[in-house]
Amino acid sequence: MSDQLPAPYQSAADRSVLHHRVGALEDAAGNRFPLVELKPGLQVPDLTWPTALAAADAETRALYDAIAADYHIYAPLPFRTFKASEQTVRSDIADRLRLSAGDRVLDVGCGTGDGTLHIVERVGATGAVWAQDLSPGLLRLAVDKLAGAPCPVHYSLGNACHLSFADNAFDAAHHFGGLNTFSDVPGFLAELARVVRPGGRVVIGDEGLGPWLRDTEMGRIMQNSNPLLAHEPPVAHVPVAAREVAVTWIMLGAFWLMEFTVAEGAPEADYHVRIPSKRGGTHWSRYHGRLEGISDEAKALAHEAREARGLSMHDWLDAVVREAAARDLEEGS
After folding, report:
1. Which of 270, 328, 331, 281 has its CA nearest to residue 306?
2. Given the DSSP bridges, would you call strands 153-157 and 128-133 parallel, antiparallel or unpaired?
3. CB within 8 A of 318, min separation 6: which ones?
4. Of 54, 133, 174, 205, which residue is the least packed, with the fewest Cβ within 10 Å?
5. Are 316 and 307 in contact (CB under 8 A)?
6. What is the pLDDT of residue 282?
7. Residue closest to 129 by CA, chosen among 118, 140, 137
8. Are 25 and 5 in contact (CB under 8 A)?
9. What stretches in the chain show pLDDT beneath 50?
């Protein structure tokens, strides 16, 4: 058996493939990621990077580990408070991933696996799910909950802002209910766009009242109880590779969902469409074709000449500059 882990595991430290070593995984730079016994007979890789977590992430891990045994008491509260069916909400989120049988899906910050249950149903026996969380306590509960999953589920501990997976490794990625506590939200979104293949889907969400609700009685009461409801969806940090970006508020407008399709790089418009106006030209020529400024008198004359010839300013200038350049080059030769 090869000591190399099956794709898509990859070091978040140096992007090299991870290899088995005694009691750990190791990357090309010698960084070691321990194998931890999550449950008797189940070892999972702790892919957390950096090994010394940012303060916000360390606090989050400690909090969830501390309440893991009672998490089932707390988890239903948002759904009950905002009069929503948890099963309906989670099913709708899974539908937005547009999954097919056989897909490979990353559920990052999977918690106790409540959302993962809906994902495994959609990918079926030929698919696979990678379930990751920062908290060992929550991940243990996810293992129990997903014991009857119809597809393989690969578990790992890790930092959502530094994912230990290869580029384009997944058909989709999912996260719901923890982003507001992440130390590096822009980094998290960039990581999702990196590990999901072009054409794949990303769906994330967390609490955050719609702007129209923040100063209502409900908004003030709920933000007093849960300050995280004052957070806004991280629209400014959407990766440039995102397409079909949509933000939706659910659960009486108290939670938001952000979804997008991953593409390759930043979008490129058709810059060379000719613009039918007096100015004329194209988007490209208007931006890249600018010459040194001219005097007000010369500009006025140019407008008169352009109109007399029935040309756009772009076409007139292009012709004049070409004629003058050709003449001067000929005289100089």
Report:
1. 281
2. parallel
3. none
4. 54
5. no
6. 95
7. 118
8. yes
9. 1-5
As a three-state string, the secondary structure of the chain is CCCECCCCEECCCCCCECEEECCEEECCCCCEEEEEEEECCEEEEECCCCCCCCHHHHHHHHHHHHHHHHHHHHCCHHHHHCCCCHHHHHHHHHHHCCCCCCCEEEEECCCCCCCHHHHHHHHCCCCEEEEEECCHHHHHHHHHHCCCCCCCEEEEECCCCCCCECCCCEEEEEEECCHHHCCCHHHHHHHHHHHEEEEEEEEEEEECCCHHHCCCHHHHHHHHHCHHHHCCCCHHHCCCCEEEEEEEEECCCCEEEEEEEECCCCCCCCCCCECCCCCCCEHHHHHHCCCCCCCHHHHHHHHHHHHHHCCCHHHHHHHHHHHHHHHHHHHHC
Q: Nearest 5°: CA angle at 234, between 251 and 86? A: 25
Q: Residue 102: left if φ>0, alpha if ψ -120 to 50, beta else—which one?
A: left
Could you tell me the pTM of the whole model? 0.91
In angstroms, the Cα distances linking 313 to 270, 284, 287, 322, 323 are: 21, 15, 14, 14, 15
Task: Give residue-wise pLDDT tens across range 206-242.
Answer: 999 999 999 999 999 999 999 999 999 999 999 999 9
Q: Determine the pLDDT at residue 292.
A: 83
pLDDT at 93: 98
Residue 8: asked if its preceding bond is cis (omega within 30°), the reply is: yes
Scan for tokens 């995280």, then name that residue: 228
Burial class (CB in 10 A: 0-12, 13-18, 19+), 19: middle
For 25, 83, 84, 116, 133, the CA distances from 73, given in Å and listed in that order, are: 36, 17, 16, 19, 19
Measured CA to CA, the distance from residue 199 to residue 197 in angstroms comes to: 6
Residue type, 248: T
Cα–Cα distance measured from residue 226 to residue 212, given in angstroms and rounded to the nearest whole number: 18
Amino acid sitting at position 21: R
Q: Is the peptide bond before 50 cis (omega within 30 degrees of 0)?
A: yes
Exposed/middle/buried for 270, CB within 10 Å: 0-12, 13-18, 19+?
exposed
